[in-house]
Amino acid sequence: MAKTEARKASKEHLSSSAHQSEKLSFTWAMERCFTLLFQGLVYPQIWEDPVVDMKGLELTSGKSVMTISSGGCNALSYLSADPEFVHAVDLNDHHINLLKLKRDGLRYFPNYQTYYRFFGSAQCAGNIRAFDRHVRDHLDIDCRHYWQQRDILLRRRVSLFERNIYRFGLLGRFISAGRWGAYLLGVRLSEMLEMPNREAQLEFFEREISPVFDHWAVRRVTAARASLFGLGIPPAQYESLAREGDGSMADVLRIRLRKLFGDFALQDNYFAMQALTHSYGVGPEISLPPYLQLEHYHALKSKAERLSVSHRTYSDELTERPEHTFDCYLLLDAQDWMSNKQLDHLWSQIIRTSRPGARVLFRTADKESLLPGRLDDDLLARFAYLKDLSADLTKQDRAAVYGGVHVYELKP
Questions:
Q1: 313-323: per-residue pLDDT in tens?
Q2: Which of 1, 57, 187, 353 is the most exposed, having the fewest neighbouring CB atoms within 10 Å of its CB?
Q3: Residue 391 resides in a domain
Q4: Using an 8 Å Cβ cutoff, are 224 and 248 in contact?
Q5: Residue environment code for 325-344, b if the CB has 16+ CB neighbours within 10 A, otherwise e
Q6: For residue 356, is it within any domain?
Q7: What's the number of domains the chain is made of?
Q8: Average pLDDT over residues 118-137
């Protein structure tokens, strides 16, 4: 009963965030389609750069963090900075159970090699056996039930980690569809892996990939707001994103992919490798999220109990927290979904629960911060916008999906 009520509440919270349009309008229908899709697994891997996050927040030993789980990679990665604690929330119970598994796998798998085979490679025979032997009985009852559930072919859900979980979820399938579409248009994305340096990558992009976005079929498909549901982008966020390309989403995608494949060497950008291969690659020089890096493994294993998780909204969690609880707040792109009223409530709770000098970091589909003109002036006046730092972090963000990374600091 409690689980059913939690799922019902999750759907209601998601609807209140994503549903902003008048009833029976076209956008109203699109918002409900998006909500339906978002109730499944969306992000096997979070698509925000944790290194950028930690720089922007000046995350150091003893600080406390409030974040949104998504795929869970970053919540765990923040532990590498030795915070006092990290708390993650999410409306999507698939994300919650994925993060719990990543955290408890860190605690109970016997060594780095087993942990990496399970979450890094995620397609090794023996991963299910390792789960059953080391982790399953340590999961809470809801999480254990989630990973034990069977599909129509009677495969347990945990078998995703022997079938490459990065191919699944809304994002994984969206990437597969994009690669298939590129193949039909004559682009062999695998050739990008043969490029020896960043300059060669950019040349390949301009020669082979960029012209795809001028194709009539690509422009027509991407003109539909539903075309980016696979990236977790609802209709309201689509409109904001399209402004960068003067209304052409194909041009926006060209810009973002140029950054993804041209601004960073592949061996330094695990987001690009996931987009190309649904994997982190092989070999000693591959790029990995911090929580999967060997150098952080033992420290994170000893700190895993500092990460807590709850299935609820960000604002609801803050409402029940005492004053002066957090130093760092990460909002991902959640505000792009919110009404002005929801923004005011969220930021009033951030102010109430923040410690002196607290920082808030978020991303937007558009280049500019969405707060001026939308957040109550008195609330906004409590914060300083770190404009130069925000611009630098936007350039450094290897994920390349968002128009802007923004950092605000609570004034004394």
A1: 999 999 999 99
A2: 1
A3: no
A4: no
A5: bbbbbbbbbbbbbbeeebbb
A6: no
A7: 2
A8: 98
48: amino acid identity, one letter: E
8 Å CB contact between 401 and 256 = yes
Tell whether 206 is covered by a domain: yes
DSSP H or E run through 241: helix 235-242
Helix H or strand E segment including 328: strand 326-330
- Residue 183: which domain range? 167-277
How long is the chain?
412
> CA-to-CA distance for 171 and 41, rounded, in angstroms?
9
| Closest of 306, 285, 269 to residue 79, by C-alpha | 306
Please report whether residue 364 resides in a domain.
no
Cβ distance 208 to 191 under 8 Å?
A: yes
Cα torsion at 189, 191, 196, 202 (round to 10°)? -40
How many of the other CB atoms lie within 10 Å of CB of 295? 9
Cα(51)–Cα(49) distance, integer angstroms: 6
Least confident among 42-46, 225-229, 234-238: 234-238
Q: Reduced to 3 states, what is the DSSP secondary structure of residue 57?
A: helix
Type of residue found at 135: V
Indicate the residue among 215, 247, 277 that finishes a domain.
Answer: 277
Band (357; pLDDT cuts 50, 70, 90): very high
Long-range contact set of residues 235-242: C-beta below 8 Å, sequence gap at least 24: 235/21, 235/27, 235/30, 235/31, 235/34, 236/18, 236/20, 236/31, 236/336, 236/337, 237/333, 237/336, 237/337, 237/365, 238/365, 240/336, 240/364, 240/365, 240/366, 240/370, 241/365, 241/366, 241/403
